Amino acid sequence: MLPFAYRVFQAIIQEHTFYRAAQVLNVTPSAISHSVNQLEKELGFTLFIRSRSGVELTPDGQAIQPLIQDIVNAEDRLEQAAANIKGLNAGSVRLGAFSSVCINWLPPIIQNFKQDYPKIAINVEQADFSSIASAVKTGRLDLGFSALPVTEKLTVLPLIKDEIYCITPTDFIPANRTTVTAADLVDQNFILQRGDYDKDTKAALDHYQIQPNALRFSIDDQSILAMVEAGMGMGILPELALERISGDVNVYPFDTRFYRTICLVVNSEQAKAPSTAKMIKAITSYVTQHYPDKILHHSHMS
């Protein structure tokens, strides 16, 4: 089966030190060093640069990393296929998600999935849209949640249109009492997560000519609500983010409606893995059941 050196190579990249890689693989640090030395000898070049802060790939190491990732992923798919043939339903799923999906969707999705497939291991990594798509492209994640547009060449499965709302202090009422207009936003500050200042959120802010010097950045969605509640400015959050967090604030639509399209991204090769295919089915079934009026029914290569 797969040479141990490839597993060592991947573990070092993920853990950033030989010591932690040894802990993950349940071997001694000397075994890790020996494996790396042997692999470097076989390849004919150095793979890692070691420093006090940890371990980094050399340019040569970076060049072969995607190839080794492909080999590791193919081995995982082979093991999963064999396990399914034997009726074990074994395997693993490495899933990337942004905060509102982690809070609102993943707990019930994973709970139901574990009931159906108790032997499939699930690993979740929280990150922003672009980091998730990049990790799926390189094969470090099997699939992930992102938002359109996706620039990487991946299979993209659009899920729902998620409306973006204006969050205001309770003493604020828009002039027309229903929607927030450009006139309501003159001299207003906005609070948002730094990672959200792109794509759909930026489109809404640009539409109303909100200048960068009127922006303040917060850590997460709940802290945005707390800062709005304290009168420090207005917030801008999608509907999904508001499902399980709360504050003494008002929520209004903009007079021009803005949406983000939440999607799944998956590497076409990893989509062939039985456990990944089962997770995709579990996610789409959950979203279809709980958001029947918002579900989108098409997929494409981006």
TrEMBL record:
It comes from the Bacteria. Residues 1-58 form the HTH lysR-type domain. Coiled coil: none annotated. Pfam families: HTH_1, LysR_substrate. One of its GO terms (molecular function) is DNA-binding transcription factor activity. Keywords: DNA-binding, Transcription, Transcription regulation. The keyword S-adenosyl-L-methionine does not apply. GO terms for cellular component: cytosol. CDD domains: PBP2_LTTR_substrate. Belongs to the LysR transcriptional regulatory family. This is LysR substrate-binding domain-containing protein. It comes from Levilactobacillus namurensis.
